Amino acid sequence: MADLSVGPLAGLSAVLDGPPPAVDPERALARWAGSGAMSLTGTADGRPRAVPPGLVGGLDLLADRLGRLGGPVLDGPALLGERAAAAGLRRRGATSVGGDAHLVDAADGLVCLNLARPDDVASLPALLGVALDPTDWPAVRRALAARDRVDLVEVADLLGMPLGVPGTAPDRAATVRPGGPIRVADGVPLVVEFGSLWAAPLCGGLLARAGCRVVKVESTRRPDGARRGPAVFFDLLNAGKEFLAVDPTDSEELRMLRGLVEGADVVLEASRPRALRQWGLEVDEAVDRGTVWASITGYGRTGPRSDGVAFGDDAAVSGGLFLDGPDADGGLGFVADAVADPATGLLATVLVLAALADGRGALVDLSLAGTARWLASTPGHMVRPGPDLRVAPPRMRDGIGGFAGF
Length: 406
Hints:
Blueprint: H1 8-16, H2 25-35, H3 53-68, H4 82-87, E1 101-106, E2 109-114, H5 118-122, H6 124-128, H7 137-145, H8 149-159, E3 163-164, E4 174-181, E5 190-194, H9 199-209, E6 213-219, H10 231-238, E7 242-246, H11 251-262, E8 266-269, H12 273-277, H13 283-288, E9 292-297, H14 312-318, E10 322-323, E11 333-334, H15 340-358, E12 360-367, H16 368-375
Helix pairs in contact: 3-15, 9-15, 14-16, 15-16
């Protein structure tokens, strides 16, 4: 991360340059069990599992920084269970809580195959280099077991398929390039959000609760996919926002949109860099004139996998945040529900508020996989839960930002 010598971003830079702080293992276990996220972690029929203590410590640290920067008071780890609480989801071991991602073996190690969209299923023959029925799961597993991970990554990123491979995350959760002075006209920052699903909408929602004016922009041809999920979860993420639907083929609507972005103090987006360029939006120009531009991608805007696509579950695996160690219950497993999504959304919120506090525009380049790697990087292991440990179910925040029952 860039060395911004003074201000809130400088402190966050130092934090993200190292692992999350060590937390007392007993306290970390109690926080994890009480958050609702532990109930989503582990095999389907076994006991809930503990996680690396850095995950709890990192999320608690970010929630604390959020409050200090004027954001809502949150239980950081509890964010990981909100979608499951809304949709009634449960842990499934080597299959993700959402049901689309799977921990499977390639020829030289574990991968996470995330079939989040119909196109991902249809692209399986191209990924695997064999003609097969993509719904024949045993055949898919056999074909995967014959392919090396480096080859799978190359093809998956070319096809735009989400594939998690341990060790392929960026070295850092986020990088920052400073820009020009911020021009907040009336004291209320204007945020234009181009985001869908979880990470970016969570960030936009938290910024709205921090007092920003947030305008959520959706394409009429491709609205936010979260609208197809539980309405209560979509409403939670998007409460307090204004909504704008834009037809990307209409030149007049794009002209109006570019004017909105030119007047924004913050732009929040979650797409590969070329996507918004097709709408005539240039990030470098915006940053230089004082905009805080927060870009959330799977693997960052630059680097070996910058062309790749990722979602929360597969990005977590690429960052090493999954269950694959000795445990009383054993077995592979995912950590909570798409953990990299809400974790990155929280980190993005803190970085944006820090940049606003500094009064300087910036390109904030965040990656889902890099955030997962950061959270998994603290040395040490959480203590094994005892038989009497009470594990809370997942829950959602109430209407004012706190968690019901917290």
